[in-house]
Design brief:
- The chain is mostly beta strands.
- The protein has two domains: 107 residues, Sandwich (Immunoglobulin-like); 222 residues, Jelly Rolls (Sandwich), CATH 2.60.120.200.
- It is built from no helices and 25 strands.
- Strands 9, 10, 11, 12, 13, 16, 21, 22, 23 and 25 form a ten-stranded mixed β-sheet that branches.
- A hairpin with a 5-residue loop joins strand 12 and strand 13.
Length: 382
């Protein structure tokens, strides 16, 4: 799974009740005396399980550029649970600036909420804080069971040859490997592909016919000095069955797209240092877009459909590995044919994964909250 181009995490102590004075910024001497004032901060309250955006309005004593401007949230334990979608490279002036973040949910409880900004030297500045109360929801939690299980291959004349329905614990060893892949430089982690991943079998759980991949900050440090995130990957490579898809097969999965910044789920293939076909890649900062890529005979498409593709939405994605054209399907309808294909003798292992972006092309996580991604099944027809 290769990287593809579009940002930031914040840590630091909460400020007091007075607005902060900006530090000197490179090439901007006037910023040394600029005072950043927080004029508006929303929401004033939330309900557990209900997503909400945050709004922030600030002004300064003199114009200057801030590297990042966003809304922070901290729980009673001191963990950062910031709203995603902080604004980058913004101009703050006496006339004021307003931003709206991405949406997030919080558990019932009391939190500390505040605006924050980052100067061009990399230092973080927190604005006045206040209490954010999240009320308990009166709505019963929704069942994790997806609304549909699919009805077979859209390619005529095919029958089911292999499937994973996630009706029981992950069959590590016999069907899947979860702690290593040759697609990662170090086997269980791969920092040079803009990933914070550190693979663990324990990061994939199964309940109610659904596999849930969970990524969370790890105690491991990557070779580039960044903190790793423990996360889940399932590959058929190295398993006893060693199942591979081949030319003429159709692979399909039904997944619930993640909502949190930094999430990078995908269904893809790999073998002998390549063999890569990306059935899909997804990043919540491009909420209605799926990336389709053929790395064998290069071709790529960015597919956008707001009615079918959105954070938290279940979607069925399929790929036909044709010799002369790889074809992609969304909810049973063909949406892209690359016209290049994989050739007559191609085969590769399947990989279903939740990677965590390191922030180079898509935003890194904006808090330490766990990131989740769910899958109902993986099926192969031939």
């Amino acid at each position: 799974m290769r990287i593809s181009p579009v940002t930031s995490a914040r840590f630091g102590a909460i400020a007091g009740t007075a607005a902060l004075v900006a530090v000197p910024l490179a090439g901007q001497a006037h910023a040394a005396t600029a005072k950043v004032t927080q004029d508006r901060l929303t929401p004033t309250s939330m309900t557990a399980g209900t997503a909400a955006e945050a709004g922030l309005t600030v002004h300064s004593g003199a114009c200057f550029t801030a590297r990042t401007l966003g809304v922070g949230v901290r729980d009673a334990a001191g963990d950062n649970l910031d709203f995603p979608g902080a604004a980058d490279n913004v101009r703050i002036c006496p006339g004021g600036l307003s931003i709206t973040t991405g949406s997030r949910t919080l558990a019932a409880g009391t939190y500390t909420q505040f605006g924050f900004w980052q100067d061009t030297a990399g230092a973080w500045h927190n604005l006045p804080s206040r209490t954010l109360t999240v009320a308990a929801s009166t709505t019963p939690p929704a069942t994790p069971t997806p609304p549909s299980t699919g009805s077979g291959s859209p390619v005529p004349g095919q029958s089911l040859v292999w499937s994973e329905e996630f009706n029981g614990p992950v069959a590590y060893g016999s069907r899947w490997i979860g702690d290593s892949t040759t697609a990662f430089q170090y086997g269980n982690h791969n920092p040079n592909d803009n990933k914070l991943d550190w693979l663990s079998d324990s990061a994939v759980s199964v309940a109610g016919g659904v596999a849930t991949f969970t990524a969370a900050p790890s105690g491991n440090t990557l070779e580039n000095g960044k903190q790793a995130w423990t996360t889940g990957l399932l590959t058929t490579e190295g398993s006893t069955q060693g199942f591979q898809v081949k030319t003429g097969d159709y692979a399909e999965t039904r997944v619930r797209l993640p909502t949190a910044a930094g999430a990078w789920p995908a269904l893809w293939t790999w073998k002998n240092g390549n063999g890569e076909i990306d059935s899909f890649e997804y990043h919540p900062d491009n909420p209605n877009l799926l990336e389709f890529t053929n790395h064998v005979n290069p071709a790529q498409n960015y597919y956008t459909d707001a009615s079918a593709v959105a954070p938290g939405k279940w979607v069925t994605i399929g790929t036909y590995y044709g010799a002369n054209s790889v074809d992609w399907y969304v909810n049973g309808t063909k949406v892209y044919a690359d016209g290049t294909g994989v050739g007559p003798n191609w085969s590769a292992y399947l990989i279903l994964s939740l990677s965590v972006s390191a922030g180079e092309y898509h935003p890194a996580p904006t808090s330490s909250s766990p990131i989740t991604f769910a899958a109902d099944y993986v099926r192969v027809y031939g």
